[in-house]
Amino acid sequence: MRVLFNSRAKHDYLADALTLLSGWTREGEQIRRTLAIDDTQHAALTERVKVVADALHLRPEISRQSDSTQIRVGHGNGEPLTEGEVLLAARIEDAYRAVTES
């Protein structure tokens, strides 16, 4: 079921949703997460995220830095976060759990 939100309620809804995403930090109009995973897990996570991101027509930034993977979601050009970007972050969490539990 879809519910329409006015702009004030929409902002509160996104803020509430972000509080449920543990490990994600907000940097302006982007959210970021650093994951301590190995190279094999990084590759599996990247593939899973690509499928979801393509379906949502979004492009997260995923980079590998020594023993961790950094993910950024959002435009970063002054545009506010959207419901789709918060949804993508939640799906990234699902993918992270899947690749670290297997």
Automatic annotation (TrEMBL):
Entry keyword set: Lyase
Catalytic reactions on record: (4aS,6R)-4a-hydroxy-L-erythro-5,6,7,8-tetrahydrobiopterin = (6R)-L-erythro-6,7-dihydrobiopterin + H2O
Family stated for the protein in its record: Belongs to the pterin-4-alpha-carbinolamine dehydratase family.
GO molecular function: 4-alpha-hydroxytetrahydrobiopterin dehydratase activity
Top-level lineage group: Bacteria
Any Pfam family: Pterin_4a
Protein name according to UniProt: Putative pterin-4-alpha-carbinolamine dehydratase
This enzyme's EC code(s): 4.2.1.96
GO annotation terms (biological process): tetrahydrobiopterin biosynthetic process
Enzyme superclass (EC): lyase
